[in-house]
Amino acid sequence: MRSVLVAALLVRLAGAQPSGDSLTLARAVAAASEHYPSIRVSEEQLAAARGAIDLARTAYLPRLDTHAQLNRATHNNVFGVLLPQPVIPPISGPVTPASLNNVWGSGAGALVSWEPFDFGLRRANVAIGQASERRARAGVKLTQFEVAVLTAEAYLTLTAATAMVRAAEAGLERTRVLERTTGAVVNAGLRPGVDLSRTQAERALAETQLAQARQAVAIARVSLAQMVGVEPGTLSPGRLLETPPELPTEAGATQHPRAQEQLAAMDEVKSREAALNRAWFPKFQLQGAAFGRGTGARTDGTSGEAYSGLGPDTGNWALGFSVNFALFDFAALRVRRQVEAHNEKAESARLEQITRELESDRNRAAAQYRGASEIARNTPVLLAAARDNERQANARYQAGLATAIEVADAQRLLTQAEIDAALANLTVWRALLAMASAAGDLGPFLDRSK
User: Fold this and answer.
1) How many angstroms separate the Cα of 62 from the Cα of each of 58, 115, 117, 287?
2) Contact present, 255 and 440 (Cβ < 8 Å)
3) 3-state DSSP call for residue 245?
4) For residue 297, what is the DSSP state?
5) Degrees (nearest 5) of the Cα angle 222, 435, 220?
6) What is the pTM of this model?
7) Which regions of 98-235 does DSSP assign to beta strands (E)?
8) Angle, nearest 10°, between helix axes 404-439 and 193-228?
9) For residues 307 and 104, is the Cβ–Cβ distance under 8 A?
10) Which of 119, 111, 210 lies closest to 166 in space, CA to CA?
């Protein structure tokens, strides 16, 4: 998707720039896309899924089994048959008298098996691996997108907190000027002492507000450092402090990385169903064997020399074509197909849920954008009025027509208006980020922020 290509390009650009430069939004997203651990986890899962495809393809190759053994055992043979079981070792030869004599036995051989045709089962198993690989690749893209969104949110938060610090510093400086002015007139006996107390209280409140703003900056800086992997340093917000562009065009819900990952999950279930449809067929094997046996036992029940049977001394070979058909597996396969059918319905319902959630996210983001844009248009008027009010209050105070309380209220209103003005455009940018997140593509948002 475009967002992934943009992120990859930004990674290369970030690596080419000196580390001492200020951090832009695009570079922050690129650094997070390169360093954040969850992306590496998804990439390793993708590599494992690719390995599963190679593993499924090995079923087309012939199978070669080899075996060799040396044993010392009695050579008593009995007539009769035993049903197949894994406990009692098989023994061959004519019936011999029972005794406790024991001899050496040895054997070595190789068996080559190859399945010439399988009614499409191996191809279906490879398709399962390919579907898993597509899902893992979609998971990588989804993780990259989510990390990019979180990084952009952390960057906007730090930018907003920094703007609040600047406004709080300006407000604190105004309260200090007012405190010095009031102190001079109070000491001269031109104003009551309560005016000085009030200005001192306003200065303390402004210092508290600045401390809170700096605390917000520190927390936001930690959050951004977690995403990019290094200390963010100085920010270069670009156009983030300017009036944002108009509403961007929205993408379809099915193009969102979440929806793409869910579609890949559905394809994976369908691939398992297709493999189960090919599972209830006979298994045909072309086989070739070469083997040798050695034994110290004789057909008359006696034993050979002390070292007889230590090595294979009688060889054989065989070629054949075998068929194996588990007739009663159809019941278990039918149940497994039913299970996968329910899994497919569950994944389909989950896709519908994701689509609805993305649609709701887009609608909420659009409403947030409209509201934030309207507020941003009003803040310049509010800021200008607050500045005029603060200048008039100071003039009235100097002329003895107003109290320190009126000036302090005007200064507090101006500080709040400056904070609102600083955050108004960032709030619109945050709404644009929410719209990009709901649309599933951060490319246009990053382009507009430069």
Assistant:
1) 9, 7, 12, 10
2) yes
3) coil
4) B
5) 10
6) 0.79
7) 102-114
8) 20
9) yes
10) 210
Helix axes 257-277, 121-187, angle to 10 degrees: 160
The whole-angstrom separation of Cα 27 and Cα 35 is 12
DSSP code, position 173: H
Q: How would you class 268 by CB atoms within 10 Å of its CB: exposed for 0-12, middle for 13-18, buried for 19 or more? A: buried
Query: How many CB atoms lie under 10 A from the CB of residue 149?
Result: 21
**Cα→Cα distances 195→9, 172, 198, 208, 212, Å:** 60, 17, 5, 20, 26
Digitized pLDDT (tens) for each residue of the chain, 450 residues in all? 434 333 443 333 343 333 446 888 888 898 888 878 888 888 888 888 888 888 888 888 898 999 999 998 888 888 788 888 888 888 888 887 777 888 899 999 999 999 998 888 889 999 999 999 999 999 999 999 999 999 999 999 999 998 889 888 888 888 888 888 888 877 777 677 777 888 888 889 889 989 999 999 999 999 998 888 888 878 888 888 887 766 555 556 678 999 999 999 999 999 999 999 989 899 999 999 999 999 888 887 788 888 888 888 889 999 999 999 988 888 999 999 999 999 999 999 999 999 999 999 999 998 999 898 888 888 889 989 988 988 888 888 777 777 788 888 888 888 888 888 888 888 999 999 999 999 888 888 888 888
Alpha carbons 202 and 415: distance in angstroms, whole number: 12
The H-or-E segment that residue 323 falls in is: strand 314-324
Spatial separation of the C-alpha atoms in residues 381 and 363, rounded to whole Å: 29
Q: Which of 158, 164, 156, 153 is nearest to 239 (CA)?
A: 156
- Name the token pair of 118: 């399988």
Position 201, amino acid: A
Q: What is the token pair recorded at 180?
A: 């010095």
